[in-house]
Amino acid sequence: MASLFWRGIIILPLLFVYVNGEHFLYPKRHVGKAELAGYKGPDSLAVDGGGFYSGPLIADDDGSTASGNAGGTTEVTVENLGKADGDNTNGNANSVESTKVAAKNGIGNGNIVEAKTTFKGSWELFVENAGVSAMHLILLPSINQALMFDATVWKISKMKLPGPPCRHVEGTNEEDCYVHSILMDVETGKIRPLRLNYDTWCSSGALDINGRLVSTGGYNNGSDTVRILDLCDTCGWEEYPGALGNGRWYATQVTLGDGRFMVFGGRDFPTYEFVPLQGQKNTLKDVVDFNFLVETHDPVENNLYPFVYLSTDGNVFIFANNRSVLLNPNTQTIIHEFPVLPNGARNYPASGSACLLPIMLKPNEDRRVIPAEVLICGGASHDAYAKADLQRPKVFLPGNTDCARLDITKRNGKWKIINMPSARLLGDMAVLPTGDVLIVNGAKTGSAGWDDAREPNLNPVLYKYQTDGTGSKFTVLNPSNIPRMYHSSFALLPDAKILIAGSNTNPGYLDDALFPTEVRVEKFSPHYLDPNLAMFRQDIIVDKSNNQVKYGKKFTVQIRGNGEIDQQKLQVTIYSPPFVTHGISMNQRLIQLGIVEFNKNVTSNTNNIILQAPMNGNIAPPGYYMLFVNYNGVPCRQSMWVQFLP
Fold first, then answer.
1. What's phi and psi for 533, nearest 5 deg?
2. Do 509 and 564 reside in the same domain of the chain?
3. What is the CA angle 478-483-484, rounded to 5?
4. Domain, as residue range, for 159
5. Which residues neighbour 345 within 8 Å (Cβ) at sequence distance 6 or greater?
6. Which among 642, 580, 501 has a CA at the least distance from the CA of 253?
7. What burial letters (b/e) apply to 60-89, b meaning 16+ CB within 10 Å?
8. Is the CA virtual torsion 559, 563, 564, 568 positive or negative?
9. Percent of the chain, pLDDT > 90?
10. Of 577, 523, 504, 510, nearest to 150 (Cα)?
């Protein structure tokens, strides 16, 4: 009965929401959807919530045995690296003191050489009013436009539709004439509104083999919807309500090696299913019960928007709350459970962030197993949401300060934990073209939820993927002056800047809240865009380069720069743009390619790089990637879109 009590309390605040001075009742869930296939009700959950560790810690050599309800042993290496580099005392000023070339223990063909800088990044306001607050954000291939959208439930935004027809509000006589989805040119800031009919609130998505966005789920009439956006100047949303077997609200979508999509979880649905082809529909027979999501369900959830990544061996890594497993998508069985990650919860509403670290390929790659690692940072205590959202007065507990790293291709893999410079939840993790990770956005205390977090974490932090063993793995970078709290987002751009958008801690569009609904869009220039390093930026000659490549084949990228190029200072990476929402970056993937051959001076200051494409879709799922050529650790002026195909 205790679980029923908790669940009742959680649901009640969702029923009434204040928007522009008026209270209204959220509409009921989409009628006709079966509730909780295979779910026996809240009393079937473990009595301590499933995510709390209640048993003794029993070490096991392969980390595969479970104790208590945690599903695995907790065995970690903890390292405190002390104070991070940089105090951030220079604002946005250029803080370069000196620029020198230093060898580092590289991440590719031998040692990669990178230029050293003390530049801590700079911020620019790109667009004053995007029209919508970017709860969801993804960069679309080839057209270089950022897709941003929020939710239709509030029936308002900061931009009106250019004309009829307006959206009919389901179950009412109302019309909603506001924009809830836009395309933004990432160079000019030009905005094109898109019409939506089915609610996208807290949905998921991924790019298909042709670069189209396939988005799943949402709220109410959008919860079982599949929607597709193609790449053209006049393309709009194609929406397919009723396409999913379960409603998917706060679910995670992952792309498999053959290009299919799976979608995991969502509120009240501890299940998964394969996303149907365009125009087709799933039934309950296509839904698979996933008890792991029942076991990891705290009284306040903490397992929504699970972190899901395709491993290089074709298995799927799923992290929820504080536990993680490998699922074979073909046999639909869990084949391994990793040690529990201690120190709180990591998924919504505790809302840490995660990424798949760079996958490093060699020339003429022939390894049977290609290592793949995940990085999970921040989050909150298991009861952070209860304290901030349900308790009065609100209590904002400190967020987590740790980052944990795990090789998901090793069955005896153990978490390696280090401390960040500051606490962070509601943040985002952008994998940069160089392989390092930018941790940005978020708060230092509280939880996800309406007005449930405090202390914006304005300083991005750079996490060095690999170092020479000296100094910190973290560098504190220059701060923004715009808080980016709940519902913030990002996108890596072709010029290697980071687009930063969103932030809405309010159920609607409010200007007079503690943290107003944010429609401004910024760009952040990371450390490698130090003006003193501009000499190292190469230009990709697109019309002399291959932009459609079969798996395992060799292909050519031509570059032009200033002066002679040293191959040892070259790095070529490909990046799959993620679908970003709620601190989760679905299908974000950076792969360093092996350089097979380097042909100098094919013409003046022009060089050909011969590369090998990834061997299969488990390493790089089919579709479009941004290809970056980095020299001395400095990305090229503009990436090139490359499509990898079976």
1. -105, 5
2. no
3. 100
4. 122-358+372-529
5. 51, 298, 302, 303, 321, 322, 352, 379, 380, 381, 382, 384
6. 580
7. eeebeebbbbbbbbbbbeeeeeeebbbebe
8. negative
9. 80
10. 504
Q: What is the pLDDT of residue 322?
A: 98
What pLDDT, on the 0 to 100 scale, is given for residue 58? Answer: 26
Strands 76-79 and 415-419: parallel
The answer on 489 and 600 residing in a single domain is no
* pLDDT (0 to 100) of residue 77: 40
Query: 510 and 564: one domain?
Result: no
Environment class of 549 (CB within 10 Å of its CB; exposed 0-12, middle 13-18, buried 19+): buried
The pLDDT-based confidence of 468 (bands split at 50, 70, 90) is low
Distance of CA 207 to the CA centre of its chain: 13
Continuous segment of H or E residues that includes residue 325: strand 323-328
- The Cα 217–Cα 223 span in angstroms is 4
Structure tokens at 195: 């019409």
Nearest Cα to 383, choosing from 70, 72, 51?
51
User: Do the Cβ atoms of 492 and 433 come closer than 8 Å?
Assistant: yes
Query: Among the listed ranges 61-65, 218-222, 460-464, which one has the minimum average pLDDT value?
Result: 61-65
Question: Of 2-16, 121-135, 580-594, 613-627, where does mean pLDDT reach its minimum?
Answer: 2-16
pLDDT band at 469 (very low <50, low <70, confident <90, very high): low
Is 13 inside any structural domain?
Answer: no
3-state SS, residue 444:
strand
For the stretch 432-464, pLDDT in tens is: 999 999 999 999 999 999 999 999 999 999 999
Q: Which two tokens stand for residue 497?
A: 């800047």
Domain at 503, CATH number: 2.130.10.80
**In terms of Cα–Cα distance, which of 480, 472, 517 is closest to 498?**
480
Distance between CA atoms of residues 125 and 522, nearest Å? 5
Q: How far is the C-alpha of 154 from the C-alpha of 176, rounded, in Å? A: 9
Q: Strands of 226-229's sheet, edge to edge? A: 204-207, 213-216, 226-229, 238-240
- Label residue 24 by pLDDT band (50, 70, 90): very low
Cβ contacts of 53 within 8 Å, gap of 6 or more: 68, 69, 70, 74, 322, 340, 342
Residues 242 and 323 reside in one and the same domain: yes
| Same-domain status, 182 and 315 | yes
pLDDT over 70 at 516, yes or no:
yes
Q: Quick one: 498 and 640 in the same domain?
A: no
Strand locations in 179-306 (E): 181-185, 191-194, 204-207, 213-216, 226-229, 238-240, 252-255, 261-264, 271-274, 288-289
